[in-house]
Amino acid sequence: MRQTFSPAAFNRHGVWAIYKFEVARSLRTLVQSLVTPVLTTSLYFVVFGAAIGSRLSTPGGVSYGAFIVPGLIMLALFTESLSNASFGIYFPKFTGTIYELLSAPVSFVEIVIAYVGAAASKSVVLGLTIMLTASLFVPIRILHPGWMIAFLLLTAITFSLLGFIIGILAKGFEQLQFIPMLIVTPLTFLGGAFYSIDMLPPAWRTFSLFNPIVYLISGFRWSFYGTADVSVGISMGMTMGFLIACLAVVARVFKTGFRLKN
Question: Residue 3: what pLDDT?
Answer without folding.
Answer: 52
